[in-house]
Design goal:
The complex is a heterodimer of chains A (258) and B (90).
Chain A: E1 7-15, E2 21-29, E3 35-41, H1 49-60, E4 64-68, H2 79-88, H3 94-110, E5 114-123, H4 125-136, E6 142-146, E7 178-183, H5 191-203, E8 208-213, H6 230-248, H7 252-256
Parallel strand pairs in A: 3-4, 3-5, 5-6, 6-7, 7-8
Antiparallel strand pairs in A: 1-2, 2-4
Helix pairs in contact in A: 3-4
Chain B: E1 7-17, E2 20-32, E3 42-48, E4 57-62, H1 64-86
Antiparallel strand pairs in B: 1-2, 2-3, 3-4
Chain lengths: 258, 90
């Protein structure tokens, strides 16, 4: 069969920050081969159906993808109820998120189908987390920030014990190429904040690509929301997949099957 | 945008959720991305009992316009209801 499609998607357990054991959603192609990995970071409302669709989308396109449930410590329970509890408690600490992302990366590396190259992508608050993780952890070969708010922090009051540092201030430590996807109508990050992020990346000589979309605001990939902009989202997805295929150098076996 | 801004309203009351009726002591109120609604932002209220751990909730996600209208109707219901209950028997 020249065009076999198949993937396996399931909940798995992984070791996160401080060795805590939690849930993650993991999907990979069923065909033989070694696949680049992607850690997928969910947005603030929680580990929802849309993020699981994203994980399966990456598997469809030849990646082994994992989305750690960043709020698993507040379980058991439905992800939306757990997300509400986490929100009421002021969110999760950056250090804990980075530890969980490191654990998800380790899970991917430990799989027998791993090619050894790994990227990280996040949406909304997860975009910020992806930026933070790529500036904090070694081992990522690519990072994608989809409209991560609060990468630039203008009000010092927005920094606190859980989020002590603005990710932009860690940019010097960014160790892999960055792709940024933004809607020009977004209120967080604003187009002006995106420009400031780009200026820092340029000044520090980092490898990056930014794509800005007119007629789109926050979360314009999210097909479950009125924010969805199909034309911009389709183009954005093409940019994301092209970037990750290039940077993670998908194995010949997985590319050949597409 | 994703924000961490939550207004906490202490309250006295009851709410009916998945497990039936429960006492509630807090409403967590925020205007942000929804979990269920298709709107970009919603006024969300989670009624919980934080004194008992806050693990169960009764949740609503409302459009900004309908939330404001609801505030007016709540105040109107209180005003007319309290007036009626305070009125001397006919």
């Amino acid at each position: 069969m020249s065009y076999y499609q198949g993937l396996q998607a399931e909940t798995v357990t992984f070791r996160g920050h401080k060795g805590d054991q939690g849930e993650a959603y993991y999907a990979r192609p069923l065909r033989a081969g070694r696949f680049p990995g992607i850690v997928v970071i969910h947005h603030l409302p929680g580990w929802d159906e849309w993020i699981m669709e994203v994980v399966r989308k990456f598997a469809h396109h030849g990646f082994a993808a994992i989305s750690p449930h960043l709020y698993f410590r507040e379980g058991p329970g439905s992800p939306d109820d757990i997300g509400a509890r986490v929100r009421a408690a002021g969110g999760v600490a950056d250090a804990q998120v980075v530890g969980d992302v490191a654990g998800a990366m380790a899970y991917l590396r430990g799989e027998p189908n791993a090619s050894g190259r790994i990227g990280v992508i996040g949406f909304c608050s997860g975009g910020r987390h992806a930026y933070l993780a790529a500036c904090t952890l070694s081992g990522f070969d690519a990072v994608v920030d989809c409209w991560g708010g609060n990468v630039v922090v203008d009000n010092p009051k927005d920094l606190n014990e859980k989020r002590p540092i603005a990710p932009i201030d860690l940019t010097e430590k960014l160790g892999c190429p960055l792709l940024g996807i933004f809607g020009n109508d977004d209120a967080n990050p604003t187009a002006e904040q995106v420009n400031r992020t780009e200026a820092v990346l340029k000044r520090l000589g980092k490898t990056y690509e930014f794509h800005r979309y007119d007629g789109a605001g926050h979360a314009f990939f999210n097909s479950t929301r009125d924010a969805y902009r199909p034309e911009q989202a389709m183009d954005g997805w093409r940019k994301v997949l092209d970037f990750l295929h290039r940077r993670l150098a998908a194995s010949a076996a997985s590319v050949a099957a597409e | 945008m994703c924000s961490y801004i939550v207004e906490k309203a202490p309250l006295v009351g009851s709410a009916k959720g998945r497990k039936g009726w429960m006492r509630i002591d807090t409403a967590n109120v925020y205007f942000d991305h929804p979990y269920h609604s298709t709107l970009d932002h919603v006024l969300a209220i989670d009624f919980t009992n934080e004194g008992e751990g806050g693990r169960d909730r009764v949740a609503v996600e409302l459009s900004a316009q309908s939330a404001r209208a609801l505030v007016e109707r709540i105040l109107a219901a209180l005003a007319s209801g309290e007036a009626a209950h305070a009125a001397p028997p006919a």
